[in-house]
User: What shape does this take?
Amino acid sequence: MNASIVTGQQARQASRNNKTHSASTSGLAPGYLQANLIILPSRYANDFRNLCARNPVPCPLIAESANKGCDNAVVSHIDNLRGDEILGEWCDLRRDAPHYMVYKDSKLEKSHCDDVVAEWTDDHVAFLIGCSYSFETALATAGLPPRQLLLGRNVPMYRTKLRLCPSGVFQGGTYVVSMRPYKRRDVDKVRDITRRFGATHGEPLDWGWEAVERLGIKDIDRPEWGDAPLDGDGKKAFGEMRGQIKSRDEDGEFKEDEDEGDEEIPVFWGCGVTPQEAVMRAGLEGVVMAHAPGHMLVLDARDEDLAR
Amino acid sequence: MNASIVTGQQARQASRNNKTHSASTSGLAPGYLQANLIILPSRYANDFRNLCARNPVPCPLIAESANKGCDNAVVSHIDNLRGDEILGEWCDLRRDAPHYMVYKDSKLEKSHCDDVVAEWTDDHVAFLIGCSYSFETALATAGLPPRQLLLGRNVPMYRTKLRLCPSGVFQGGTYVVSMRPYKRRDVDKVRDITRRFGATHGEPLDWGWEAVERLGIKDIDRPEWGDAPLDGDGKKAFGEMRGQIKSRDEDGEFKEDEDEGDEEIPVFWGCGVTPQEAVMRAGLEGVVMAHAPGHMLVLDARDEDLAR
Assistant: This one.
């Protein structure tokens, strides 16, 4: 039934009726913005909003509940978009993501439940954080599709030692990054394409094999979230490609080539798992809720609305 | 004559007439906002604006030229302030900072010149970046005056290894931080006071002796900019205080005390030297201008206007 889901509202309706059975919302309602969802007790709202303001690359705040306890309207944090353009009349933040996670006093209570109607209170505030699905469409359109899409895998995500600027109770957190391999010669183009998507992580924050050490990533082949990255054929671990330069000749065979631009290198972007990690790390009291990983809230605004 | 300078406009008028002879604008027109000034060829404006948007803690962008080449009006980057409230009718970005630095093709051409009338072209764009003078007033008012103010010294500033999120031509830059010593027990209060000043670096980004290593600061007693930090009496190097706990007894004598809260630790904030460093590092072509260190542009908006 996914082919019949072409708008954000249709995607939310399917979620609400528990009719989305995909592994993720990737590819649902193409061109519509998808958001990470974090729902907090109101006493943490100021600190969280400020955490996002201080760390906009990994935590791009798009919108939040119109007021405390409001589950059906948002105010915008994007200059050129109103709240009702981001999420229109027909929305229910408690039911419109396909699956939710529920934490009580920082311990997981429920995993992948269909809604949080029972848990939501008039003291909760929902935050919508940008997601990299937006710029992936733009990369694919420009002829530079992310490898994990071609291979039907999830994007690899890594914990780093790059520290967030703290905000109130949110201290000691670090960036989580997503990684997509590109040829060295294509990095500038990839940077240019994703730069416009400032509200969904924007251009890469680092790249190259040296960046793996710089960011403190333990093992490029063992991401903390998502699937392990592979070479272009989907056969070898991506880490084995380090220092290898390969390109296909006219017969479709691999050959050695000395042009440095052909080397594939890891390219890293800020990742929306960052604020979730920061929330988990803060040891909050009370009930905290989030979408289940990969099962985003689909919005009424379009990717292009966010491109600056 | 400084006592007669009570408004931002008066401070700028004195600068324009070359009548400010202080070592810095610190303490001029108390309560009025002061800004770091960076003036770039227009082709770098988008990348620089984006650099600030991606790194708001060390690079809090307050305003910029109303349009390319405009030297007498700004547009605001602060939600609740208009451009003409930040810098009103009577302003001249080429003359209203006490002293300027001029760089040509990334090499210093002029140091501490009185104006940049000859260098300014209709292709230049001026950027105004927040400065920590704003929250220092608030700290002093709350009974927690920064030590360097009490000792009549400049705040120490350090290069770190904490990397900025890159933006276009601005790559590989790192945070510059300022440091003010506080007792461990006062850190939460200091965080609360400065948090409101999000447009002028906000709350600290790290603190404690462990932060010195974490940030990659080479020697706490040898800052890259400003004056070396001292103990409370202004006699010993601050680095010697590491692990020492002292408090005065009733007779005013120092005594040993076992309460950890009495230990003085370094507290670090984002610093407005960061964007200048990033600009220098980028190896830009053409004429780049900036205020001379410490000789800020005094604005018409007040510190309290920026406090959220």
Notes: The first helix of chain A runs from residue 8 to 16. Chain A has two domains: 2-133+280-306, 141-270. Chain A touches chain B through 21 residues (CB under 8 Å).
